[in-house]
Structures are given as structure tokens and as C-alpha cells.
Amino acid sequence: MNFAHTRIHRALRLLTQGRGSRLVSAGLCVAMLSACTLSPDYHRPELSTPLQFKQAQGWTQANPSDAIARGAWWELYGDKQLDALVEELNRSNQTVAQYEAQYRQAQALVRSSRAALFPSLNLTVGKNRSAQGTGSSSSSLSNNSSGIRDTYNAQLGVSWEIDLWGKLREAMNANEASAEASFADMAAIRLSQQSELVQNYLQLRVIDAQKRLLEATVAAYERSLKMNENQYRAGVAGPDAVAQARTQLKSTQADLIDLAWQRAQYENAIAVLMGKAPADFALAASGDIPALPQVPVSLPSQLLERRPDIASAERKVMAANANIGVSRAAYFPDLSLSMNGGYSSSSFNNWIELPNRYWSVGPQLALTLFDAGKRSAEVDRSVAVYDQTVAQYRQAVLDGFKEVENYLVQLKVYGDEAVVRQEALEAARESLRLTENQYKAGLIGYLDVVNVQTTALSSERSVLTLLQGRLVASVQLIAALGGGWDARTQLAEQ
After folding, report:
1. CB 232 within 8 A of CB 287
2. How would you classify residue 166: left for phi > 0, otherwise alpha for psi between -120 and 50, otherwise beta?
3. CA–CA gap between residue 358 and residue 343 (Å, rounded)
4. Which residues contact 369 (CB under 8 A, 6 or more apart)?
5. Per-residue CA distances from 234 to 230, 237, 437 (Å)
6. pLDDT tens profile 81-135
7. Which segments of the protein form a coiled coil according to its record (predicted)?
8. What's the rounded Cα separation, in Å, for the pair 441 and 352?
9. Of 391, 403, 372, 368, which Cα lies nearest the Cα of 480?
10. Are the C-beta atoms of 232 and 241 separated by less than 8 Å?
11. Which of 119, 132, 253, 425 could form a disulfide with 147 if both were Cys (CB 3.0 to 4.6 A apart)?
12. Are 470 and 415 in contact (CB under 8 A)?
């Protein structure tokens, strides 16, 4: 700082000398001075990062393919229609469009702050009419045009604030970091919207499978009801068997109807995510459910680089760190250079002529001597904002680790449960086969068949519901790992 003060003093001494050539030279000299940096050196906030995820034991590390590395993580599910829906979301989602507009605003602020480092050139052309009293009211009355004068001015001015203390550069750095944070926010909301669409799509496909199951079950129950009605008319079965068969059929039909509004909700949600009105979108039923993918589990250190919300939180720390330097620079004087020149005349005809020219050049040093602690309060506020962003960054990292751990254990538990559920389903199917044979042989009543059929149907639906949960959890895990988003690649493309 002392060396910088010496150079500034020398520059100011040159500026006070009377020759115009030296003024220009002095201005260039001051512009070349290295500004003092008043903000603290930035370091990423310290974190205690685990070597691996606690629930990752037993998981196979899967390396993403080239397509996934570009961010198309939804292609893991191998569904072309899903791929098309997500691409439409990327083009037309209105929430992403809002954040994209915010990012463009942040970019404009960066360009504006960068422009403040350079001189500004202004041109002023105008006419001024003025009058001055003669000191005698009688003479003023006799000649009301006395003292009226027209003045024509044409002036070209250059002004330049010398960034001695790095205030302007720190402001630009803060805006650049904020712009990068805005870009990361946009990536985070895009990932969130993609994740929501994929989850809705997968749940809709499971509902389609449940609908096919219930439709087949309803058809089987209709045949059972017809059979019991025929047996009742033949005197073989009683009215209780018919009532039980009808109750079972109507209950299953009600469950089938209930799926219609559930599917409509998911379909409408997908339409809105793609920027369409629900009335303009329809998704045909499909006979396939996308397969559960092998999720690539990244290392904890990679999570900090891949997740856009964590990247955004860190860039906000960088912006807050730069703003400390901006606040500290208020303690030091502002130095600006100005040069003006032009023509001034009372006559329009000979306005632009050599005798009417004028010019001025000189430095201006402005320093606040007393502000009742305003600058000190602003520095304290900037430091507090920095501490707040550091805490937010650390919390974002902790939340990221927690989400990954939760989804890892959820998928692990669901996987173990799926094995048991499948075994229960196979046992229920076998029990149903044996019970139906016994009923046909007249060894048991129809109530026994109804009970076993209800258990088998419940097992079938439980397996599908569990598959739905596993698919949704896999999407949530991929999003928690940052999807296919790479901060360095994305920023380099801008």
C-alpha cells in the first residue's frame, strides 16, 4: 500500500503541471498504475468431505456414457418417447425461461461494470437564452428586450474514473461471480424440471401397467360372476356366491376408474412442464415400463463439482468476497480525469470558428471526510453477507450429501424389498391356482376363492407400486448427484 501511495503521489504531481502534453502523459501514467486489491484473497470455504458415501457400499461404480456426460441423463431409461418429452421441456419450459432471462440480466450487469473501467465520451450541443436586468425598472419597461442574449454551445467531453483501489474491478468481479451463480441457478432449475418430468412420466407408465392388470382382472371377475350366476340358476351354487362375485367385480371396477384421474394428473403435469396447455397434450398408453437403470454413483468430491446448486452457492461466496473490497474502497479517495472542449458563441452564423473555442482539462480528487460511521457499517454488512453465503454454501453441501445418502439407502431397501415382494407374488399366484382347482372340484366354497384372488391382486399391485417407488428414487438419486451437469463444460460453452 505504501508503494502504491508513492506512485499515486507522483502521478498527482504530474497532473498539477501546466502543460497539456504532460497532462495527457500523466493520465496515461495513472491509468497504468496497478490498483490495490482491498478484498480478501478468495479461498473455497473449508469442508469436511467424506471419502465415500456411507450407503454406497455394495454399489457398482458405473461410468456414464458419452451421451450422459453431455447431460442427457434421462437416456439411462432407454425410452425414446421420454427423450422427446425432455427435449421439448428444454426448449419450452417457462420456469427455465425465467431463469434464462435472469442470467441474461446478470450478463448485462457484467458488461456494464466492465465498461466502467474505460473513459466515457459525451457530446453536448445546445442553445441557451438568458436575460439580465438593467437595474432600472423604467428602462426595462421601455425596452423589454434589453439584456436578452442567445448562446450556442457545442462541447465534447471525456471523463474517466481511475480505479486506483480496485473498486471498479472488484465490482466487476462480484458481478461476474453473480452471473456465474445465475447460470448455475438456471442449470439447477432445468435439472429440477427435468427430474420432475421424468418422475411423472415413469409414474404414468406404472399406472398404465396397473390399468392393464386391473382390466385383465375385471375381465376374469366378469367370467367368474357369469359362472356363479349360471351355477345359481342351475341350483348348484347359492346366492351368497353370486353376491361375493359381484362385490369383488364392482370393487375392482372402482379401482380401475380411480386410476383415470391419477393418470390425468401426471399427464397434465407433463404438459405444463413442456410449456403446453393440458388441453393441447395427450400421451397414449404404452405397454412397456422403462427398465430400472444402473445409476452412476459419483465420489463425494465430484458431487461438489457436478451439482449446480452447490456451484451456485460457491459463486455467491465469491461475489460476497469481492463486495468486501468494494466496501473497503469507500475509505479511499476517488480520482477522476476530465477533459472538455468545444465552441461557444452568441451568434449562430460564426458559432464554429477558432476564436470561439474553449477547452479545460484537470483531475478531481474526492474523499469523504465524515459520514458518521456509514462506511464502517457497510464494510461490516459486507463481511456479514460473506459469512452468510459461506454458511449457505456449507449447508448446500451437507444437504447434497444427505440427499444422496437418503436415496442410496432408499434404493437399497427397495431392492431388498422387491426380492421378497416377488417371492410373495409367486406364492400368491400358486395359491390362487391351487384354490381355483379345489373350487372346480367342489372341495371348497367360492368365498375361499375370493379371498385368495384378493390377496393375489394385492400382491400384483404391490409389486408395481414398489417398482414405481424404485424408478422415482432412481431419478431423485441422479438429480441429487448432479445429473449430467458439468459446471466447467457448461460455462466454457457460454
Report:
1. no
2. left
3. 6
4. none
5. 6, 8, 20
6. 999 999 999 999 999 999 999 999 999 999 999 999 999 999 999 988 887 765 5
7. 82-116
8. 119
9. 403
10. yes
11. 132
12. yes
Phi, psi (degrees; rounded to nearest 5) at 419: -65, -45
The single-letter code of the amino acid at 365 is L
Read off the pLDDT band of 164 (50, 70, 90): confident
Would you state the pLDDT for residue 58? 54
For residue 368, give the C-alpha cell. 469523504
Domains in the chain: boundaries: 36-117+165-332+374-493
| Fold of the domain built from segment(s) 36-117+165-332+374-493 | Outer membrane efflux proteins (OEP) (1.20.1600)
Is residue 180 classed as helix, strand or coil in its secondary structure? helix
pLDDT at 55: 65
Condensed to tens digits (0 to 9), the pLDDT of residues 312-331 reads: 999 999 999 999 999 999 99
Q: Where are the alpha helices (DSSP H) in 234-298?
A: 239-273
Q: Which three cell numbers stand for residue 341?
A: 472542449
Residue with cell 415382494: 421
* pLDDT at residue 187 in the model: 92
User: pTM to 2 decimals?
Assistant: 0.81
Q: Are 269 and 192 in contact (CB under 8 A)?
A: no
The three grid cell numbers given for residue 54, joined into one nine-digit string: 456411507
Q: Tell which residue, 86, 297, 61, has the closest CA to residue 202.
A: 86
How many angstroms separate the CA atoms of 462 and 222, rounded? 23
- Burial-class residue 356 by CB neighbours within 10 Å (0-12, 13-18, 19+): middle
Record the cell numbers describing residue 214, joined without a space: 386391473
Q: Please state, in angstroms and rounded to a whole number, the distance separating the CA atoms of residues 265 and 279.
A: 12
Cell numbers at 277, concatenated:
396447455
